[in-house]
Automatic annotation (TrEMBL), chains A, B:
Swiss-Prot/TrEMBL keywords: Oxidoreductase, Thiamine pyrophosphate
Pfam families: Transket_pyr (PF02779), Transketolase_C (PF02780)
Origin species: Conexibacter stalactiti
Lineage, highest ranks first: Bacteria, Bacillati, Actinomycetota, Thermoleophilia, Solirubrobacterales
Protein's recorded name: Transketolase C-terminal domain-containing protein
Domain of life of the organism encoding this protein: Bacteria
Transketolase-like pyrimidine-binding domain sequence ranges: 6-178
InterPro entries xrefs: THDP-binding, Transketo_C/PFOR_II, Transketolase-like_Pyr-bd, Transketolase_C
UniProtKB/TrEMBL annotation, chains C, D:
Taxonomic source organism: Conexibacter stalactiti
Chain ranges of the Dehydrogenase E1 component domain: 97-394
Tagged with keyword Oxidoreductase: yes
Bias-annotated ranges (Basic and acidic residues): 43-54
Cofactor(s) the protein requires to work: thiamine diphosphate
Region (Disordered) location: 37-59
Keywords, comma-separated and alphabetical: Oxidoreductase, Thiamine pyrophosphate
Name of the protein: Thiamine pyrophosphate-dependent dehydrogenase E1 component subunit alpha
Amino acid sequence: MSSRTMTLSQAFAEGVAEEMERDPAVFVVGTDLFIRGGHWAQVKGLGEKFGRERIRDAPISEAAMVSAGVGAALNGMRPIVDLNFVDFVFGAMDEVVNQAAKIRYMWDVPVPLVIRGTAGVAFGAAQHNNQVEAWFAHMPGLFVATPSTPWDAKGLIKSALRGSDPVVFLMHKMQTGLRGEAGGPDDLVPYGRAAIRRSGADVTIVGYSIMASKALEAARRLEAEGIDAEVIDLRTVFPLDLETVVASVRKTGRLVVAGESTRIGGIASEVAAAIQEACFDDLDAPIERVGALHAPIPHSPALFKALIPDVADVERAARTALYREQPTEVPA
Amino acid sequence: MSSRTMTLSQAFAEGVAEEMERDPAVFVVGTDLFIRGGHWAQVKGLGEKFGRERIRDAPISEAAMVSAGVGAALNGMRPIVDLNFVDFVFGAMDEVVNQAAKIRYMWDVPVPLVIRGTAGVAFGAAQHNNQVEAWFAHMPGLFVATPSTPWDAKGLIKSALRGSDPVVFLMHKMQTGLRGEAGGPDDLVPYGRAAIRRSGADVTIVGYSIMASKALEAARRLEAEGIDAEVIDLRTVFPLDLETVVASVRKTGRLVVAGESTRIGGIASEVAAAIQEACFDDLDAPIERVGALHAPIPHSPALFKALIPDVADVERAARTALYREQPTEVPA
Amino acid sequence: NGGDPSGAQAAAATAAWAAGGEASARALSGRPTVTVVAAPPLDPDRPAWSESRKPGRGRRRYEVVGANLERPADDDELLALELGAHDRAAVAEWLEAMALIRVFEERAAPLARAGKIPGGMHSAAGQEAVAVGAVRALKPTDIVTSTHRSHHHSLAKGLEPAGIMAELYGKAGGVLGGRAGHLHLADFSIGLFGSNGIVGAGLGIATGAAVGAKLRGRDQVAVGFFGDGGANTGRTWENVNLAAMWELPLIAICENNLYAVETHLTAVVSNVTIADRAAGFGLHAVQVDGQDVVAVHDVVAEARERALGGGGPTFVEARTYRYSGHTVDDPETYREADEVETWRRARDPLVRAARALEAAGALEQGGLDAVLARAEETVAAAIEFAESSPWPDPATAADGVYGIEVNLEGKP
Amino acid sequence: NGGDPSGAQAAAATAAWAAGGEASARALSGRPTVTVVAAPPLDPDRPAWSESRKPGRGRRRYEVVGANLERPADDDELLALELGAHDRAAVAEWLEAMALIRVFEERAAPLARAGKIPGGMHSAAGQEAVAVGAVRALKPTDIVTSTHRSHHHSLAKGLEPAGIMAELYGKAGGVLGGRAGHLHLADFSIGLFGSNGIVGAGLGIATGAAVGAKLRGRDQVAVGFFGDGGANTGRTWENVNLAAMWELPLIAICENNLYAVETHLTAVVSNVTIADRAAGFGLHAVQVDGQDVVAVHDVVAEARERALGGGGPTFVEARTYRYSGHTVDDPETYREADEVETWRRARDPLVRAARALEAAGALEQGGLDAVLARAEETVAAAIEFAESSPWPDPATAADGVYGIEVNLEGKP
Ligand SMILES: Cc1ncc(C[n+]2csc(CCOP(=O)(O)OP(=O)(O)O)c2C)c(N)n1
Ligand SMILES: Cc1ncc(C[n+]2csc(CCOP(=O)(O)OP(=O)(O)O)c2C)c(N)n1
Ligand SMILES: [Mg+2]
Ligand SMILES: [Mg+2]
């Protein structure tokens, strides 16, 4: 593997460090950052490098952390507010939604702010496994990054730190340690541009965050059955790169959209709704949505694994889209 | 009109009063309730009737109001937390999402709590016109009521106050003064049961809250063009009564779903995604979603009226579903 | 023994405890022991603003500045205010500024009731001295954030009456093209970092702006206004605590006008004052007569010095009163009309300043009328401008949501 | 004059001001005047818990209860605690309860590190006296809410070790079938209204439970635990204020163990104590030695009396210390190992209680070992139960989200 191989968290930290060197306005606010480098090593090593002023530990005051970020952004800074688990954003929701998201529209000024949170389902039970990417995608004024590779984590945080809009940056718990190649100082990843991870002719599988990875794995397995799947990683759930999906569906005529969050009201539904409209005459089968049942996440692994979609669920949905298998209750 | 004709707010207040008389556990917490009866007269007259203990004014502390409601519900009460504008829920989002919504699942106890907020678009600019029904519909553990008639406002609040799950109860700013007939003490309206407001053969128009009313008006106007539209009012956006919509689409073969909130990630997308799957072979045209552009709501009426959908947008979408008109940018 | 007459000592003990050092106030062993953390009275004759002091060392709870901060009694006459060493011409300009606010609010109110100002408005009539006294103690480069009651702060900070009035109308000529309205007035070019429709949120933005000022090493303070009602939201205390911890150049000004919509202060503040709450967070706290423009000015000027001297933030509870209802179409069933009359007669900030200037020979007898007349002209012109300004172009309604091109339709 | 030696007077003045009555502490006219709100020292010899007092009249800032609340110095020997008038057998039972917690945490920690307890755990070793002292001052019908550090509260409230351990394992035999885990232990049948994964949220639920108790006229109090870190969230102060305003039967107990994960108290609390913050909200506040089970018990017992006597809520800052890292796999790079050793040697709550019982002849010399041995047996059985308990049925994963039948699939 290339010398640029590292974990998703390391790639994120590298991107932040590079931008902090480039731009003195960039700083990070959150808890357990300076000594520990964050609970997912997302800013590991930056404390010694940039000092307590720029790697700034705060009291457990999420509302104040985010408002401090918003106000600082309006006064010439480029803050990253690190919320630890994204679940703690609920205590700062007004600051995100009524302030950060709306200020450019109301006041015609840029709000260069990143709100980072660790998302997705893993251990931690109900209150530490909320899925909020669909919420933020529905809220005008925010961008939502959902990287599934180290390359994208670095490229997307760098773009966010050079942009002028608030970005909710979500890193999946199960992927912060994911290893892969990361780009160099100038490898930015744009917002609203999906990546075709695998090209195929039979069925299009769209995913984001961990489901992009699971979709790719499903495609590999489907190959054995002679199913040639095209896999698209949305990379950002807002903006949504619908054009790339449309082009693919025009080719395959079949679509599976996979998200880890509860199906009802999820990103997969938005993609399905838009594509059925744009590709009505191209679709040879209903669009299949892969997602979780409408339930909180329990503590016991024996239980939560039954709620969230896995690779087999994506495979099953693809077969269903190809009329190779009757729909079963998803997730099985 | 019948002697039971009243405004939507009066019907809500009547429902609350009846349940407060029935059940001493019911009480209301919020601001400006006791003297004023709420800024939309939603509990007008209840202060004198039930006293300060049960019509309970609180400091401007939304988080404490909701946690007070959650804890009281767990200790034998049936609180209504009145948040005034639903926009103020952001300051209590953890209490709604991580506490109220998840407690039954985590702890196997009922949480008979109503969180009332005035929603929808009107005057008040960006921070007072958030659309959050899709957020709460995506969050397991919550019910979401979106009445469009006095009858439903009364029937749904009564059901909520006899149920055992947390309900987010949304009343549209432009409809609190809407007049219509209200039911008697025993006319409850169930959750997850849509109402067919008009039956028709050519196209199905689904709406909720104010868009249910606009859909009905659109249907009346379309009649003049010889278009016979069926109008379905969802009444609650969680649970969603998809069965009623499926039955209608099997009949009409065409579907328009209308919500006032921004189209991206809205309830209309969820309905469209589910129906394209269930009715793939029944649909003669793409499902049309009517919604707002992805922008905050501005102060000037000249501007916000251009962002949100009106009756003409629903008509246009219906014609499009009938291939009578090319799609135009919605809203026009 | 456990008796501890000095809060400083207790604070030191706390610090020692936390830091692991010897306790300075260690009690004799053997319980029970009861200690109380207390502060000695200050010399009442020492001026509040002339001595330099360390912030929030806990030695005192908070200062009280002003001749009389009690609510006026029914038979009270107009309370005098003292000009102190201030340049009379400066105070005369403050009076002009207060008069502009008063007239703006009085002329705008009926326009809101008539629907000319969509969605109504919150009038700040009666609270002019807080805005003018505070803002006149700042440099133009300093930052101010405001609340739903935004006109007095905005006018004091230098926003043009015509631009505000047109904004209230929702017209294209408004300072923000009619998008923002009276809830969201802002002009970053003059340091007005927005008025906010969410109670307490403006203080948060001021706190963040103070973070920026500190990290950038700017000679700049941020002032965040909020109300007595705002003193009940958690975000207010999170931000006050953050400012105290980070020693930010923040001045948090609570305009305590006794009411939050129809909720009276005593229904939401228990046994203590709002300044007392603030003192509990360890920053310097002051209670000031908010109807005395000079007192407010002096307290804020001192707070600015303290902040820029590295002394950290200051919390100011300004006791004031609103003459209008919560909104201009508030039925006001929650207070007696003569309560308003008493405040007008005994505490009116314009009349108090005018009387003091007259006494000092800096304003001719009855000179306030001329001042108000000039304000009437300005406001009349502002209304004229708003009336004649065109409506914004509906085609622009969705512009500027993002800094880059984005599909806002959800359709490919 | 403006000098005001009595907080009570100042509070009265505030009330008078707010109510519009004559001011009791009106200053002489002519400014400047400086007043300070202060409280006189209490008689150090008066027992903290024997006198009845009105809550939060502002007369004092807060009480300090305990022989020595300072952090131990390196050379400190074990600090004695006094049994006072307590029945020795009762205190001996408290020691048993504390020993069970200590052993439970020490045996569970390696199981968490080994992955037997999915997601790890937060150990409360070192904080036993706060949980046991507080809960033993309550009636079984009283309500307790806990935090992410939940085992000591849960065990003290009477949750069975086996049911807890199986819950931590995520097994079907857990008190909540493995759904809740160590972050969300609860048992409403014994008044344990949940441990909460969100900092400060448990206090909110206790506040609401206290509302219910009050409205239903129940002879019941609610105790909400949270940490020093929790004293920084806005929701904590919103709830404290609400409880003070509504005079709720709430006891808010802040377990100040000096650290929030790796953030030291002094990095987030400025110049004041946490009890000082609370006093600013006008409710009765006490600071107590959290390593003295008797002192904690007495303070909470008094608070319960106060609450049920209509005296309103009490805020308790219990100064304690955690022996483990934040989680049991915390690298603990933020503190010296000998800091932990010093606390164990000089302040251990079990040893202190044992020594006092020995001195009183209620425990034989070295009797703590026998107590711990009994706890070992109980915990060993609990682990055995957890190990042998089956996994929950995956088919039940989505059961019980709602009280009625609902389509959870989003497909008709
Ligand atoms: C978070 C939040 N809750 C409630 C409201 C509704 N509201 C607007 S102004 C107001 C009263 C504010 O009172 P105060 O802070 O004393 O300011 P004043 O109106 O007296 O200037 C309330 C409750 C709001 N805007 N934001
Ligand atoms: C709202 C919120 N923010 C952050 C966290 C992450 N977190 C869990 S425990 C903890 C530290 C809490 O410290 P403290 O309140 O002192 O309790 P202790 O761990 O010392 O018992 C933090 C920051 C959380 N659970 N909830
Ligand atoms: Mg007020
Ligand atoms: Mg702690």
